[in-house]
Amino acid sequence: MDPFMILALLGMGCFGGFAAGLLGIGGGMILVPFITMVLTARDVPEALVVHMAIATSLATIMFTSLSSVRAHHKHGAVVWRIVALLAPGILVGSTIGPWIGKQMDASTLAWFFGAFVAFSATQMLINKKPAAARELPGTAGMFTAGGVIGVLAGLVGAGGGFVSVPFMTWCNVRIHNAVATSAALGFPIAFAGTIANVFYGWGEPGLPDYSLGFIYLPALAIIVAASVMTAPLGARTAHRMPVRQLQKVFAVLLYALATYMFWKAAT
């Protein structure tokens, strides 16, 4: 891997880690398009590029989540009872999401990812939070909610924050607690999704060297090295300053990345 590619991956890791800690989004929606660019530049077969980018992004969240959640936990912001209730459904859903993704061709998966990112950017830009209309559901309801979060997160290679945070705020969880708890949920999402992507991608024809299933290990290692350093910084920033202006910047970036994924799907 040439030095420019290494620097690009380090930059992605720094930015993705900061976003994960700041917004509880796992960084995946930022990382997937950039990893797609890197894999395309390395002449990975087009049929595998998006699948591998999503799988590699999801694997990074295992490390980013642990790094950012420690900073959130120091502020007492993580609601561990919610983590325990959502985690079983998340573990199930996060194994199903990659399976669904494998059934899609690369173009369809890129279209779906781009649409999800554009929706998430709009949600971030308008900052419309659901009214706190109810309390958290019972065990069965939380399992179902966790399953939905896991399926979507496993399918797009993200930490699930754009689903879990609105769900929790709708259920009367304070926004800072929802962001922190979403960061903690990133680990079970990424763990189950990573195992699934290794299994579903094992022996796939055309995988580049140093791949583990659909996961491209060189990109994983470089991104993680950077992201674990910046995720705590993002988490501390979330507790020390209003993040509204930063949200707008991230939303514009997400629109640009969604546009790239639409272009990738169309070509």
Automatic annotation (TrEMBL):
<dbReference type="Pfam" id="PF01925">
    <property type="entry name" value="TauE"/>
</dbReference>
<feature type="transmembrane region" description="Helical">
    <location>
        <begin position="246"/>
        <end position="263"/>
    </location>
</feature>
<feature type="transmembrane region" description="Helical">
    <location>
        <begin position="47"/>
        <end position="66"/>
    </location>
</feature>
<protein>
    <recommendedName>
        <fullName>Probable membrane transporter protein</fullName>
    </recommendedName>
</protein>
<comment type="similarity">
    <text>Belongs to the 4-toluene sulfonate uptake permease (TSUP) (TC 2.A.102) family.</text>
</comment>
<keyword id="KW-1003">Cell membrane</keyword>
<feature type="transmembrane region" description="Helical">
    <location>
        <begin position="146"/>
        <end position="167"/>
    </location>
</feature>
<keyword id="KW-0472">Membrane</keyword>
<feature type="transmembrane region" description="Helical">
    <location>
        <begin position="108"/>
        <end position="126"/>
    </location>
</feature>
<keyword id="KW-1133">Transmembrane helix</keyword>
<feature type="transmembrane region" description="Helical">
    <location>
        <begin position="214"/>
        <end position="234"/>
    </location>
</feature>
<dbReference type="InterPro" id="IPR002781">
    <property type="entry name" value="TM_pro_TauE-like"/>
</dbReference>
<feature type="transmembrane region" description="Helical">
    <location>
        <begin position="78"/>
        <end position="101"/>
    </location>
</feature>
<feature type="transmembrane region" description="Helical">
    <location>
        <begin position="179"/>
        <end position="202"/>
    </location>
</feature>
<feature type="transmembrane region" description="Helical">
    <location>
        <begin position="6"/>
        <end position="35"/>
    </location>
</feature>
<keyword id="KW-0812">Transmembrane</keyword>
